[in-house]
Amino acid sequence: MKRIALVLDSPKRDFYGIAAVAYWLIRNHKARPIIVGTQNEITALVKYVPHLLVMPHLRFHRHELLVSYAKAQGTKIAVIPVEGFPKTDRLIAKSVLGLEKFRKNVDLLLTWGDYVASYCRDNAVAPGTVIKTTGSPRFDINTPAYNSWFSERKDFMGRLQLPWDRPLIVWFSCTAWANLPVSEEAFANTHSNKLRSTHLVGDDLDLMALRRDDQKAFNYMTDLFSRFIREHPDFNYVIKPHPFEPQEPYQSLKALSPNVRVIDTRIPVAEIVRHADIQVNWQCSTSLEGWMFDIKKKTISIRTPGLELSEDFVPFVKGNDCVITYDDFVRRMHHYLDGGALPDGLEQKRKDYIHNYAAKAGHSGEACAQALIEHLNGYPEPRRRWANFRYIAAKQIPHWIWHRRWVMMRRPPSDHKYFSPESFHLTIEKYNRLFSTTVSSKDYDLEV
Questions:
Q1: Can you tell me the mean pLDDT for 305-321?
Q2: Are both 338 and 367 inside the same structural domain?
Q3: Which of 332, 357, 382 marks a domain boundary?
């Protein structure tokens, strides 16, 4: 039986994707998945000696320890990216794989779409790495096949205490750099250096300009959306801030109408898009999630005057109905609320984008499981090597002396990256009901 450790990075984003891969590994391949919370990777490597360690990325310097230990005991390393369509081509390697020094250690890369796979091959991003397109498993639940997992419209609106028979307009915000609770000086001195070294930004990117651009976009969209609510108070409005944004700046909009709700990550995006009559956004992947549910979904992207759009990001944004002025926004809103169709050619642009950047929607979890198992064919059994514990000690003990914490430490339940074992069990039960199977909690391990 193949043992495959699946690292769950951000539960708010990746929970359902990891659950999908785990389920299909058990159902189709009789493998044993080990679901691992971040910072528990070394524990999982030592305890379970997995054949394969599946990472979301290798962006952090702390990953050096687990990469070295995995390779020493013969555990292969795969990456299922959590970011699949970066804003510019030059960030593909960093966002999809991580830091350059680790890329040679990746045995298997599973990309969201053919565009990124071709780019990585053509530009020798990871020489020697096997690259396959499997799609992103986190998007599977956005497809109609999973409708039974979510509430009917009347129940959903009832939970929000909104009239169910009125149009629902949803604003998915995506200005994570706006309204940061730190001064520009602190951001420049601390945050920007960390982000530049480990995150999804290029060395030549002006992070202060990015922060100002996001703030400008937030201000423009808030003014526009607020005006529309004041002039149309009888519609239903749901505002879903980006998970990394503070919610407080959005709360003032609730005073504009009794039908305004600001919601957090406890309600999945997949449920919200199912009931949204119109989605409004600015450069947000929730449009893609809406298209996966219904290729004709009404999604409007508000462009902020004076902010240029990255050329590489244009194909995605162009799948939306793009507007700039308030008058244009009102006209498009009324067109859709009156039952109007999408502009000519928009549906095809969406299909092209899904093909290139988010393939196999609804079947990605199964495709990932298949690719992982196929990759392990012919590889020898990994072996626990006790001599490697000396290497771990050499790294851990100095870190404790200087920082009073271990390199790898379990996260408490209050941590935003902690995931509940009970929630995972319940999700597997949902799969059982959907596909009439009997996968048990005894078929997998959790290292939370």
A1: 73
A2: no
A3: 357
